[in-house]
Design brief:
mainly beta, 10-stranded mixed beta sheet, 59% strand
Length: 123
């Protein structure tokens, strides 16, 4: 099966009170969500990932909440293949007056059949 590829610009937002980090693709309409542990993937009608919500983000990234607010130069890459999703998040934060690059990777099986696709989203 051929892999569909989507490259898009997006935005990042952080809900400090609830410790939820959001990454969203511009100009793609949300259709439904897939829940994985403390992450929710927002999908469009073509089954591309168009948003990521990370709950308890400070614990997930092992960074104090105050520093997550300063995320700069982010990118997320999502790859769906053989009903498994791989998400790579790349971003910079200023932590104790040092610029730190975080590059966590999440790999999870999906409970529903979704066509193979790749998404690259940057701010």
């Amino acid at each position: 099966m051929n892999k569909r590829i989507l490259k898009h610009k997006g935005e990042c937002d952080y809900d400090y009170n609830n410790d939820i980090l959001f990454f969203k693709v511009y100009d793609r309409e949300y259709s439904h969500s897939i829940e994985l542990k403390n992450i929710v993937l927002d999908m469009d009608e073509e089954n591309f990932i168009v948003g990521i919500q990370i709950f308890e983000a400070s614990r997930f990234f092992n960074i104090p909440k105050e520093f997550i607010r300063s995320i700069k130069n982010w990118e997320f890459k999502a790859n769906i293949e053989a009903n498994t999703v791989e998400i790579r998040l790349i971003f910079n934060v200023v932590y104790r007056n040092k610029l730190i690059e975080k590059n966590p990777i999440l790999i999870q099986p999906l409970n529903e059949t979704i066509p193979n696709s790749k998404l690259i989203c940057t701010c």
